[in-house]
Write a structure and sequence with these properties.
The chain has 469 residues and is an alpha/beta fold. It has three domains: 204 residues, FAD/NAD(P)-binding domain, CATH 3.50.50; 112 residues, 3-Layer(bba) Sandwich (FAD/NAD(P)-binding domain), CATH 3.50.50; 116 residues, FAD/NAD-linked reductase, C-terminal dimerisation domain (Enolase-like, domain 1, 2-Layer Sandwich). Helix content is 33%, strand content 25%. It is globular, with a radius of gyration of 24 Å. The structure holds flavin-adenine dinucleotide and 1,4-dihydronicotinamide adenine dinucleotide (NAI). 1,4-dihydronicotinamide adenine dinucleotide (NAI) binds next to helix 6, strand 12 and strand 18.
């Protein structure tokens, strides 16, 4: 009889956990995955990436049809109206198909789904819905949840988190978003396009923290032009709700006179924090760092041998593709192979219109590093306004920026604002993964007419001149 029930039990079936479980099973390990939700796929498929992209897509089409922006192409609509229930239904259908797809993949790969919440009872065992299970290896992939804002209680009616904002039963008149980060701008865009007035209250002096400075500035300009009311350097100090209306008290982040803002909907989107509550980590001999995350080594193993962790519960960007890649690599380590994730080349995409995508160092980070090492950087930029396809499609907002080491010409970072920046960034990732120089990109033949040619021209601008500028 086997010593343990499983070779590997993965806790959590989000992009980190479900991918790890499938990879481990493919590598011949007897694998189970614990998930307490009624469907697989975690935050990403159920209440994150997928439903948000469904609403972003649908609201974009609605806005195009309704705003008259297609008239210039000779396409006239009359009587465009919103059926929000149908929009939600189509979103739910996409979510259902994708979460059902994971269930199918589990069956196909012989991964057991253990339903319920897992709590450690030792470094090799856990309790799930009153039953005990043992495993030679355990992987924690419990993800993250919304960071609460003291004084602004989420009721999922008037004051909502991202999950509530993905399911509003009607378009708010005035939506106040607390936090000018990725969730605030994506979900703010959805409701702005569907007719809400949207105010973004951001604590810092610019939106989109962590992104390239020039990108942050340009993005703010574009969002303001679209109708977002963006209030940076402002903090919310409290909220009261009465009769379906929230009254928020706000004041300058640096302190000063307070004022009130009324809204029929408030979205709290000030970040997310690792999920470790109820896991009884201490029973396994584990603890969390100062930010509540589980620390791991290069092999994704925690301080306890045989216990691994991946995804949002660990340090690093909270992104589905980062979680997935870590899940694959960690499963490979469990199976005795060497898994690899290059954490220097993880793209980030904000799915607003236009999209904002970035990989590698920002110009500020690259300059700072160069100053320390005595090196220099070069920057090439190309505006989408000068890209023939963007001009033809009438989607000319944005630019491409390539940052390279001045001496070696190696690409250090790429930042794009463009209608399809999220797709364009993949080329930059591949180039950086292969250690490309800006010249490598500049001398690569790009199909014409495509938005991707803007990346080629920005790369040309690093050491010389682009053609179309
Ligand atoms: P999760 O997806 O959070 O999955 C963890 C799972 O573990 C959950 O299902 C949870 O129920 C389960 N669990 C937790 N504790 C236990 C327990 N004790 N027992 C059993 N099960 C447990 N990222 C992108 O890359 N692109 C996007 O477009 C994008 N959009 C997003 C939009 C929104 C609105 C949000 C909120 C997030 C978005 N993200 C996006 C982030 C992305 O969803 C996360 O980075 C990703 O889901 C992390 O994967 P994970 O596997 O680490 O955790
Ligand atoms: P975020 O970290 O992107 O943005 C939070 C914002 O809130 C920051 O700008 C921060 O300065 C601000 N803030 C913090 N406290 C505040 C306060 N008290 N008052 C006003 N502003 C305050 O976090 P967000 O948007 O909640 O997203 C969480 C995570 O989900 C992100 O880390 C992101 O990686 C992930 N995500 C990714 C998406 C994508 O890849 N397209 C889409 C949505 C979420």
């Amino acid at each position: 009889m086997a010593e343990h029930d499983y070779d590997l039990i993965v806790i959590g079936a989000g992009p980190g956990g479900y991918v790890a479980a499938i990879r481990a099973a493919q590598l011949g390990l007897k694998t189970a995955c614990v998930e307490s939700r009624e469907t697989l796929g975690g935050t990403c498929l159920n209440v994150g990436c997928i439903p948000s992209k469904a609403l972003l897509h649908a609201s974009e089409i609605f806005h195009e049809a309704q705003s008259g922006s297609l008239t210039k192409f000779g396409i006239d609509f009359s009587g465009v109206s919103l059926n929000l229930d149908q929009m939600h239904a189509e979103k739910a259908k996409a979510v259902g198909e994708l979460t059902g797809g994971i269930e199918f993949l589990f069956k196909k790969n012989k991964v057991d789904w253990l339903k319920g919440r897992a709590a450690f009872t030792s470094a090799n065992s856990m309790d799930i819905a009153g039953k005990s299970y043992t495993a030679k290896n355990i992987m924690i992939a419990t993800g993250s949840s919304v960071t609460p804002l003291p004084g602004v209680e989420i009721d999922q009616k008037v004051i909502v988190d991202s999950t509530g904002a993905l399911a509003l039963p009607k378009v708010p008149k005035h939506l106040v978003v607390i936090g000018g980060g990725v969730i605030g701008l994506e979900l703010g865009s959805v409701w702005l396009r569907l007719g809400a007035q949207v105010t973004v209250v951001e604590y810092l002096d610019q939106i989109l923290p962590g992104m390239d400075g020039e990108v942050r500035k340009e993005a703010a300009k574009i969002f303001k032009k679209q109708g977002f009311n963006i209030r940076t350097g402002t903090k919310v100090t409290g909220a009261t709700v009465k009769g379906g209306t929230a009254t928020l008290t706000v004041e300058p982040a640096a302190g000063g006179a307070s004022e009130t803002i009324e809204a029929d909907c408030v979205l709290v989107a000030i970040g997310r924090r690792a999920n470790t509550d109820g896991l009884a980590l201490d029973k396994a001999g584990l603890s969390v760092n100062g930010r509540g995350q589980i620390e791991i080594g290069h092999d994704f193993q925690t301080s306890v041998p045989g216990i691994y962790a991946v995804g949002d519960v660990c340090p690093g960007p909270m992104l589905a593709h980062k979680a997935e890649d870590e899940g694959i690599a960690a499963a490979e380590f469990v199976a005795g192979l060497t898994g690899i994730v290059n954490h220097d080349v993880i793209p980030g995409v904000v799915y607003t219109y236009p999209e904002i995508a970035s990989v590698g160092l920002t110009e500020e980070e690259a300059k700072e590093k160069a100053a320390v090492s005595g090196g220099e950087i070069k920057v090439g930029k190309f505006p989408m306004m000068a890209n023939s396809r963007a001009k033809t499609n009438r989607d000319t907002d944005g630019f491409v920026k390539v940052i390279a080491d001045a001496k070696t010409d190696r690409v250090l970072g790429v930042h794009i604002i463009a209608s399809i920046a999220g797709s364009m960034i993949a080329e930059a990732c591949t180039a950086m993964e292969f250690g490309a120089t800006s010249e490598d990109i500049a001398y690569t033949c790009h199909a014409h007419p495509t938005h991707a040619e803007a990346l080629k021209e920005a790369a040309m601008a690093v050491t010389g001149k682009p053609i179309h500028m």
